[in-house]
Amino acid sequence: MGAPSLIHVPGRAPSTKDTLRPLASEIQQEASTRSSETSSSSTNSRCSSPSPEDASPPPHSITLDKSQAIIFKVGLLGDQYWRWVHEADPGHPRFFAPDWAEALTKTPWWIVPLIWAPLFSLCTYLACLSLQPQETTSLMLVGVAGWQLLEYLIHRFLFHHTSTSYWGITLHFLFHGCHHKYPNDKLRLVFPPLPASLLVGLVYLCLNAVLSAPRALAAFSGAGFAYVAYDCLHYAMHNGRWLPAGPLRDLRTQHVRHHKEHTHSYGISSSFFDLVFNTSSKSLLHQVGWA
């Protein structure tokens, strides 16, 4: 018996409830605007010179049944995955069939400060026992800057690495692709504790290898608090229109642009390294007079 088809053309438009969701609706609106701008010329071109490609389904018709476990199916999309994953869907997919495995992929935002803030506060206290307040503060600021650089590098070179293999696509979707496909999935907007603990542990080991124990704790706590701020801010960008006007609202604007185009604006908690490495959006470069 043949395997059922994994790709199908949906037969209904998104519901009103779907279109009211905050970030995905903005991304879809931008895509619709761009599509309408080119629809006239595209239609004329097809009428004057028809080709076999005209019979292909439109790009936005490619989807998976998100009510079924999809984590091991996305890799079967092959090259089509990279088009599919950047077409925002307001839904909430199921990753794994077993309930226990599915639960491990979901993390409420408040888990992040609940678990990590006490640890980083303890590290700050221990550092202060051996260091002067000025040195502790300076090292914590170094840690903040270090996290922002690490955040940028991970997002740009790891989370946006393009793979064509089955497992490469599967891992991309698991760690980041799912976020671009389903940007309003509230329980998958922050790092789950297990993968976060691996990153946190690696950062501490690296700092402890090059700095004395108190100095490593100070820099580590600064990086840790920056990570907590990053995760909470990222959640707010997707689920809160209450961000105050100013730098935080500007960061959200940059992040929305990243979801729409995904080739720039890799910084979440800061645009600094986007400016340093020339990956900021063109509009932002004009705002600061650099372009």
How would you portray this structure in words?
- The protein has about 290 residues and is mainly alpha-helical.
- About 60% of the residues lie in helices and about 0% in strands.
- It has helices at about 15-20, 20-50, 80-85, 100-105, 110-130, 135-160, 165-180, 195-210, 215-240, 245-260, 270-275, 280-285.
- Helix 2 packs parallel to helix 10, helix 8 (about 195-210) packs antiparallel against helix 9 (about 215-240) and helix 9 packs across helix 10 (about 245-260).
- The longest helix has 27 residues, at about 20-50.
- It starts with 15 loop residues before the first helix and ends with a helix.
- Mean pLDDT is about 80; it is low at about 1-20, about 35-60 and about 285-290.
Q: Which characteristics define this entry?
A:
60% helix; mainly alpha; disordered C terminus; 291 residues; 12 helices
Task: Draw up the topology in text.
Layout lengths: L15 H4 L2 H27 L32 H4 L14 H6 L6 H20 L2 H26 L7 H16 L11 H18 L2 H27 L7 H15 L10 H5 L5 H6 L4
